Amino acid sequence: MFLRLIKKALGYILPVSIKKPLKKLMKRNSGEEDEVLIENKIRIRTEEELVQQAEGLSEIRDIFNDLKIPYYLSGGTLLGVIREGDFIKWDWDIGIDTKIEDIYPKRDKLISVLRTTGFQIQTYYSHKQNFKINAVKHGARYEVAGFIKIGNNRCRKAYYYPKSFLEGHSEVILRGEKYRTFPEPKEYLTWLYGDWKTPIRTINKRAYVTNSSRMNSMSRIYIKIVSFFN
To answer: What number of CA atoms fall less than 13 Å from residue 92's CA on the CB side?
Structure first.
């Protein structure tokens, strides 16, 4: 109630350029969500959609292999492979992690090849401490993230994990195709999700991502300073 009164009052005095981002921030803080967006994100994908999703993933794998960029299947995609032997049907993106030193020198070439092979670049963050490419094809989103090495950890924006997770690799099979991933997939899943064996269908990351994998505000500032000088 208090937040709504503030929004109403500020609406009379703030210019449009400030109103929109402020409205988004206050909506997020008040717990309000776009129900249509939520439902679309976590809806059950059809078998046809999953077939196309797998096709796009194999295309990206081949692009990474051709460009000699080591990658790691990650996040909910890896969780689905390990727990269910397939994609999680309500997962809204495909996770791919890389080391920043492997992907950063080849980022322009990667973007170019993705575009020429039919991927739409939805978002692209080129800063080393927050490197991410969101590419869309066949209605599926492929999230490519670059992790920078800081001390004994690998970090990106607000998340981190021990650098040993990206030292070496193993392989998993997804829909008949072979993919690279972390050397100890279950160790990674436990670090990121805690109880990864229990399915949770939500877009709220705090409901399924552990506190141990998130950085505090001081750590984020430290990462920005170190990555700047790197």
So the answer is: 13
3 state DSSP class of 157? coil
Domains and CATH numbers, the chain: 45-229 (3.30.460.40)
Instruction: Give residue 86's Cα distance to chain centre.
Output: 18
pLDDT tens-digit readout, 108-128: 999 999 999 999 999 999 999
The pTM of this model reads 0.79
Q: Which two tokens stand for residue 7?
A: 């929004």
The secondary structure of residue 31, as a DSSP letter, is: T
Q: What is the pLDDT of residues 133-178, one digit of tens each?
A: 999 998 999 999 999 999 899 998 878 889 999 999 999 999 999 9
CA angle 106, 159, 84 (to 5 degrees): 90
Polymer length in residues for the chain: 230
